[in-house]
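Complex record, two chains
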Amino acid sequence: MKRNTFYLLAGIVALIEVGIFWLSVKVEEPILIQVAFILGVFLIYMARRRVEDRIEDERTAMITQKAALRTLEVFWVVFFAISLGSAVVAFSRPLGLRPPHPGPPGTAAPDMLEFPVIGNFAILQMALLCLMIFLYVGFRMYYARKYGDWDTDEEQD
Amino acid sequence: MKNRIKVYRAMHDLTQEGLANELGVTRQTILAIEKGKYDPSLELAFKIARFFGVTIEDIFLYGDTAEQK
């Protein structure tokens, strides 16, 4: 498989994923997008292995490793800090070990964690994952530059 | 670490692309090694030396050796 064919396939898979996400929201079935996402990633990994003109040597492997390690080093601090905030919100309410004290008749108990709040955490987590991707791309570019990926010499003319 | 890959390449009339193909690495890796931006692994260093039919010390010059030569 040519590299351009792989990129085309990845684009098509991404578009299908967006469609399935929309469908999943429409029919209120989260499992639909979850399964589709895992299958999509699996498909892309399998396709990537079949790309013929992709040369991966020790230098490119080292760049990838270093970028991944630095991303993890930064990301876990941000992720842990935000998770600590989430834990404070969660622990400031009943933990669900026993039913919360009922509120006034006809109203929800005032100290329960509302569902939209959980939804907001999900969106925050997705934003964090996007941050992780940006961090990785940034570090990847930094190390690629450091180890001469974009260097030119007289042979390239 | 300094090296004399460029010299040996010239002696064998090889381009960076040609050498990279022979060794199974990218042209950018050969370029990075030549410019001293990347030190190859021991395995790749041996491969390079064997390809040119010389010892590692003939190609890679470490520390004081590099200054003497």
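Note: Chain A is about 70% helix and 0% strand.
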